[in-house]
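[User] I wish I could look at a protein chain and see how it folds. I have put the entry right below:
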Amino acid sequence: MLINVNLPSKKYDVVLERGLLTHIKDFYDFGNSKVLVITDNGVPSFYSEILLNQLSNGHLLVLEQGEKTKSLENFSLIHQKLISLDFDRHDYIVALGGGVIGDLSAFASSTYKRGIKFVNIPTTSLSQIDSSVGGKTAINFMGVKNVIGTFYQPEIVLIDFDTLKTLSTRHLNNGLVEALKMGLILDEDLFELFKGDYLSSLEEIITRSIQRKVEVVQKDEKENHYRMILNFGHTIGHTIESIYNLKDIYHGEAVANGMLYMIDNPSLKEEVKQILQKMNIPLIENLDVKEVNKYLSKDKKMDEDKINIIVVNKCGSNEIIKVTKEEVIKRMGGEK
């Protein structure tokens, strides 16, 4: 399956195929360029071995697994590695892993010598569905999620469904929340897939999610307005992640809880709750309002004293509204 991404800044393809990791050259030729493969110790090591065996000038950097890897320290470490290996702008960084590795690697790619070639090979459901497409790069700083970053598009995105076989059920469902989000805001048929045996429709869910995201990004690459709809659930979700100090709760789980506060239709909200319970997504209650207020103030989407939120009343549609922090907190059942 091939999905074309046509943006003002760049055109590239998203390739989706089982087993593609074993024959990368059929989809992209790195030639004799230097390639730094960045991964983490949560990604099975045989993935990087398979990839490096197909590269004529490949190098490997393995980082620690976890959200805290998206740090200024690791950003610096990548640049040190690139400089020590004498990489130039015609060489490559390849992200092999989940969203953390993808975000960090893409950010480093966008800044090294003002831009080095970047290829994304996402290996988790979350990174395949969400972060691999659209060009957002970021690191966390001072406990705030994605507060430093750029827009930087890859040369190609290579998705091998077989890499999902090594994920735990929790990690798999964590990523699928982003597909559920996409169904709620844009694609009722996609949402309907979650009512049945959704795992039997995994490839269709991922493919439809990427198609919907590409359509959004092509209309608004730099998130001037329309692309904001992809932030459904993320305003409170990022706040939850920060409250939990970027650990103990996964990104998709936090977004799932954030979405519930932004669904205005009681029957639809109940449907979503039932789906999340089937997916074993933890439902968080009684958040500390003072903590919520603190992190909302640091949200990069905050414009003076207001923030755009995305609300859903009918499945497959959405609305962007501008509200105050107090109105967000009121939705959560609390007072400032």
The mean pLDDT is 92.
